[in-house]
Write a structure and sequence with these properties.
Blueprint lengths: L13 H8 L26 H13 L4 H8 L3 H9 L7 H10 L5
């Protein structure tokens, strides 16, 4: 029985070592930093004036939303969202393209 090793073996996962070495961003720690209002990105949204201008330009050309969408090769719902002012990620370049296709300089 002298060939057996009776000393306890402790197994540590590599995950626990990673957790210990990572700096924690919690209040009370040295590495904690509060976000300033300048650090938070602001979403660019379409203004009411821009959406009304798009609607009026499309109506002056006597185009439907479907026709404008087909002309620009985009989805009809995108045109609807731009005209309603409910677009989630406003793309200034797409807005400019729509207005130029309707004959309006932006």
């Amino acid at each position: 029985m002298y060939h057996q090793d009776w000393e306890p073996v402790t197994i540590h996962s590599s995950e626990s070592k990673k957790r210990e070495s990572r700096p924690q961003n919690r209040p009370g720690t040295k590495n904690f930093q509060r976000l300033c209002e300048d650090d938070i990105p602001q979403l660019v949204t379409i203004t009411k004036e821009q959406s009304v201008a798009l609607l009026e330009a499309r109506n002056s050309q006597k185009l439907s939303q479907k026709d404008l969408a087909k002309k620009l090769n985009i989805d009809v719902s995108t045109v609807q969202q731009y005209e309603n002012g409910k677009i989630k990620n406003f793309n200034k370049k797409l807005y400019t393209t729509m207005m130029r296709n309707l004959g309006v300089k932006v």
